[in-house]
Amino acid sequence: MLETVRDRERTAELPRLRWTLLSNTTQEPLRPFLKQLCYDIGFDADIWIGGYDTALQDAASPERGDADVVVLALRLHVLAPALVDRFVSLSPDEIRAECSRAIEYVAAVAAAVRQHSRAVMLVHSFETPLYPTLGVIDYRSGAGQANTIRRLNLDLADRLSRDASTFVIDLDAIRGRLSDPFVDPRTWHIGRVPYTRQAMRAIAGEYMKVVRAAKGRNRKCVIVDADGTLWGGIVGDDGADGVRVGRAFPGSAYYEFQQALLALRDRGILLALSSKNDRAAVEEVFATRVADMPLRLDHFAAIRVNWVDKAQNIRDIAEELNIGLDSLVFVDDNPHETALVKELLPAVHCILLPDDAVEYRSVLESSDLFDALTFSDEDRRRSEMYATEQRRRVEESSALSVDDYLRGLEMEAIIGRADDRSVARLAQLTQKTNQFNLTTRRYTESDIRGFGASPDHDVLAIRVRDRLGDSGIVGLAILRHDDHQTAIDTFLMSCRVLGRGVEDSLLVACLLASRRRGDREVVGEFIPTAKNARVAEFYPARGFAADGSGRFRRSIGGAALEFPAHFKSVVVDGEQVVS
Amino acid sequence: MNERVRHILGVVLEMSDQEIDEKLSAEDISNWDSIRHLNLVLALEEAFGVSFPSEEWARLTSYRAIVDALGQRGVV
Prior knowledge:
The complex is a heterodimer of chains A (579) and B (76). Chain A is α/β, with parallel strands linked by helices and 579 residues long. Helices cover 39% and strands 21% of the residues of chain A. Chain A has 21 helices and 19 strands. Chain A has helices spanning 2-6, 31-40, 55-60, 76-79, 81-85, 92-116, 145-160, 171-177, 185-191, 197-214, 235-238, 251-266, 279-288, 310-321, 335-344, 360-365, 377-398, 402-408, 423-432, 445-453, 502-516; strands spanning 16-23, 44-52, 69-73, 120-124, 166-169, 221-224, 270-276, 300-306, 328-332, 349-352, 411-417, 457-466, 469-482, 485-493, 521-525, 545-546, 551-555, 567-572, 575-578. In chain A, the strands form three sheets. Chain A has a nine-stranded mixed sheet with strand order 16-17-15-14-13-12-11-18-19, with helices on both faces. Chain A has a five-stranded parallel sheet with strand order 2-1-3-4-5, sandwiched between helices. The longest helix of chain A is centred in the N-terminal third of the chain and has 25 residues, at 92-116. Chain A is globular and about 80 Å long. Chain B is an all-alpha fold. Chain B has four helices and no strands. The longest helix of chain B has 15 residues, at 34-48. The relative contact order of chain B is 0.21. Classes of the chains: A alpha/beta (579), B mainly alpha (76). Chain A binds chain B through residues 2-3, 5-6, 26, 28-29, 32, 185-187, 189-191, 193, 197, and chain B through 8, 10-12, 14, 34-35, 38-39, 42-43, 46, 52-54, 57.
């Protein structure tokens, strides 16, 4: 932490991340921790800290309207001291009044920020008392101090979550995870700094979970080893019936670890298996130990059981699943394997499991690598969709020609506007899509709503389904119309549908939308990143002319705009255009 | 001079090592404000594994006072 304060210059070339901290306590000591954690994920943090207890005034000032993240750290000790210090002296009416005053204040600050900012907002919850004033009997009643503050937090969360870009920072949860003291009475009395350095580091870390997710730095797939990871022992030596896994100790540690992996799969994280083994031996464990293992082979979106080195297997898995190496997490109990992968594939995040298997679960759960800002039905179904994709690939290899194959898929595309049901998914697509993404602009739900409501913008979402399954919403384009010109602000596609003409369908829909507006020209933009090289030629290959400044222009003219011929049906804005 | 103390002073007060001598005192340094003082004491505590009671914090406002306080605790 000490180093960061001095090493300003090294962050000069990184993209900036602008923070505004509004508080009724002293936040200055948080600065170096935040700076360091931002640097760790490739950002130069520009941190502005409001005055002491002037959160509402600071929030109303439009000066920091371009902040990326706004933190509201309002402590109950200052906001409603009677609830903290003299709770027992208050009547039920007074308690209600104090609570509602506290919530209204926080809500007012949040609303003032929203007046001129679309920033991600992080709002601290209130700490519940470690030692409630009435002691043990406090917890007997819902009207006790601890439960009153818990309810206050629930009400606050309900109130704030109406805004899609606002997230609660649960201080009690952070305090519970911390093995060091959370508050320091010395710094509180001397300088109104409530939290210890360890606590501030943890609080800044919690902010970063949201930031990483908003900036698309989260991971999408976990690749696990088998022997010593999914079960104890070595199947080649101990046999399928000899490996340790099951409800009873010591197999229970592995059972729980498998549950934790399955829980990740439930939220849309893909699982993959990479094991140095004979395939038959691993299959036998999955076949014969069903009662002892929550995981089944078909929970894995990709499987590599062979004697090839793991770096090669991981590359293959990334290719098969069509995701970048920096979306992968590799988990193994063997330090040689994790070292090899770290060396050859530094973009992959490696987790070396600890010696004691009972720790496996918490190592995975505390890794903070998988946070997403939204959770949609697509997430719930993603793993199934990848399974469908595997079936599709098998058929692809036997079909006569690619054209025949595509026609045989009986594809249907539905292109429509952003609505309440799709907005979470669309925001998530902008946050997570890296490879087929022409501009890689990250947007929150409220950004997408803003574009949807704007008369100068069109937000087009494409959903596809075919004979083999429904892929859901897989692509998004955001158009800005200005002076008879259409600028394509965002054009992105989930990689799992590439090669089937879905991107062409969406582009045709963009051109049609532009023509309907009476625009004369469409301007596409390609902003290169480390990951989107595959779409560098997207516009030139589709009749757009490069103007030398990263933009590509195509006049609308009278040319016929045709959807790819293999689509069985295309619906645009509720109107059947191909059938 | 104690080099660890000098280093911590330099980082927290954003001064170069050359600017820091044994006579350094908060009275002469505009950078040595209350927030930096707080960070300074916390950094010293972390680096030397000691803890200063609240009433002592206000006295740790010079290089000499810091080294004396650390010396009393047997860590320098």
